[in-house]
Amino acid sequence: MLFPREVLPSLLHLTPAWLKARGLKGVILDLDNTLLPYGEGDLPEAYRAWLSDLKGAVPVYLLSNALPERFARVQRLLDLPGHAPALKPWFGFRKALKALGLPAREVAAVGDQVFTDVLGGNLVGAYTVLVPPLREQEFFYTRFIRMLEAPFRRPRGGVTR
Ligand SMILES: [Mg+2]
């Protein structure tokens, strides 16, 4: 339940072709440290074209544990459906799947954290993808969690791509 299906070196590797090759037709995307550096409100330049391509190919749903005010601001900027705070891993994923209108096996659940993004995605049966956090400068709590996560930051029985 804690191992992702795949580990990618960057979110930019998650392309429409990559999804198509795996039969994936939608994406549930984490926000903080996956798409945006923690606490920041604007998309890194490299990610703008990437997101525009992705949105053009498949439905993308933003699922975040961020506070609602910050999330609403970012959501307006990115023009994506989604909700927050989701209370991942226990809540949010089913609602996201329903909004996407796809079965879990056809949806990539993408994020930087094992105990929220990967566990939550695995619990509903989505295709879980772990990416490295955009910024390592984080709260002490997150760093502590990273330490617990370390053994699981690889696909089960597989290799890191
Ligand atoms: Mg995150």
Automatic annotation (TrEMBL):
InterPro entries: HAD-like_sf, HAD_sf, PGPP1/Gep4. GO terms for molecular function: phosphatidylglycerophosphatase activity. It comes from Thermus thermophilus (strain ATCC 27634 / DSM 579 / HB8). NCBIfam families: YqeG_hyp_ppase. Keywords: Hydrolase. The lineage of its organism: Bacteria, Thermotogati, Deinococcota, Deinococci, Thermales. This is Hydrolase, HAD superfamily. SUPFAM superfamilies: HAD-like. It holds the Pfam family Hydrolase_like.
